[in-house]
Amino acid sequence: MTTTGKIKNLLQIQSENSEIRRKGRRILFLIVLLLLVGVVNFLLELPAKLDGGLTAGEIVSISVQIMAGLIIALIYLYLVWTANQFARESEEKTKIIRRHLSETEARLKETQSLYDFNNLLATTLDVSEIVRRTAYTFAAQFQATRCTIFTWENGEAGKIHQANYRYNGETKSFALEVTDLSPADNSSAYPVLQTQQPEMFSLDDPDLAASLRHVLAEAEQFGCLDIPLVRGGELMGLIRLFRRDKAAPLFSSEEVRLAQTMAGETAVALANAQLTAEAQARVAQLSSLYRFSLFLSEAPGLTDIFKGARREILSFVEATGMSISLLTSDGAKLHWIYGYEFGQEVDLSSIPPLPISEGFAGYVARKREMLTINRESDAVEEYHSFAVGADVKVWLGLPMIVANKLVGVLAIENETDFSEREISLLKTIVGPLAIAIQNARLLAQAEGRAQRQLNLNRISAQLHQTADVENIISLGLRALSDVAAGEPVDLRLGRPYPSQSIETAEPAQD
Fold first, then answer.
1. pTM (predicted TM-score)
2. Which of 119, 146, 179 finishes a domain?
3. Residues 6 or more apart whose Cβ sits within 8 Å of residue 159
4. Are residues 72 and 191 in the same domain?
5. Count of CB atoms within 10 A of residue 202's CB?
6. Other CB atoms within 10 A of residue 216 CB
7. By the 8 A CB rule, do 143 and 42 touch?
8. What is the pLDDT of residues 200-235, one digit of tens each?
């Protein structure tokens, strides 16, 4: 049997005992009434008996009857007084028990509501679904005409996700919106952001902030309750409950306490969902990095490396394009060798090597550090920038360095800002990509030198096997062309220079 059932049984037993006491008092009252009637009747007959004379026995009998009647009357008065006192105390105890019973029932209902709410949140790890279920449950639990939930990322620098649940009579609607405001810009929630405690606001408050008064007037509501979403001292968001009808107080203390408890559960669920999403993203990143490293180890040449890098990078980073520029041998210029924008490759063959003293990529090459540029907010004139291909909003450049030697610059472009996760992932990728490019270039150079040496050895053998002048000349030109790495070679033949003989003067005869 539950505690509530036991209390109800106790109240029922106490009520039955009170009824028994009331019946006992009625019976005692009837007995006393009969005795009093007998005494009154005796007193009425007493004068006649006194005229006829009374014996000693009759006088004693009369005295005993009178004393018994008085004693019974006193006992009755005492019992009535005791019963009344007990009834008053019993009534007070009954009120206390009923009050505790009411509080217990309310607590049990709150506990059941929290249990159901926890079960509702525990069945999903999707942040949007958690927000939707929370907004619906809060509106239904507290009979709010509207519930708005604000959640944000990265402290005051992140975006605010706004979820609205409206209930107007029989109409229900839910909308999930994402705005680019920071918590500091949401001035209507400023008090709660500072205190991290629930706050109530109404139009009757003369000190109500103008921003909140505007929010209430725009929503056609009388007041609202702001409950912070706090987990481990970290403020994760805000729940705002609206009520249209005027009331004092707008929300009871029990409702505020329950709302604060439910908000804490919501904050925990949101944190767990975010941690799960981050873990899944890390697993996906590790899988992508493994696939990327495996591809780089098997790519046969630079062209395959460029195309594969583009395919892998754009698969896990939201971007409109990318480009790769390599440092020339003299270290003074950057040569764009690969570009990709809006779904197609960009022909960069007509663009000559550009000096590292200009442009965003030149800055990355000079400073050997990452550069992020938002053309709408940052001053780009100081970089002497120039557009190659489409002119997009956000440009991100990372230096490709191998053994403290700059190889080139990887540039990623997009219409929106890159997230910290994407930047961290690109920083991890750019190192293996630089190593793969450097190894491919060194391998190509080694293969070229080996091929030239093989050609020279073959030509040398042919030279030793022929005595024909024309063959010798042809083989010599081919060998010189290989040595000159394909550059044009001229061989001009003419008469040999005349031999200069050294005449020795004879000594003079004396």
1. 0.56
2. 119
3. 152, 153, 178, 179, 180, 181
4. no
5. 20
6. 20
7. no
8. 888 888 888 887 888 888 888 899 999 988 888 888
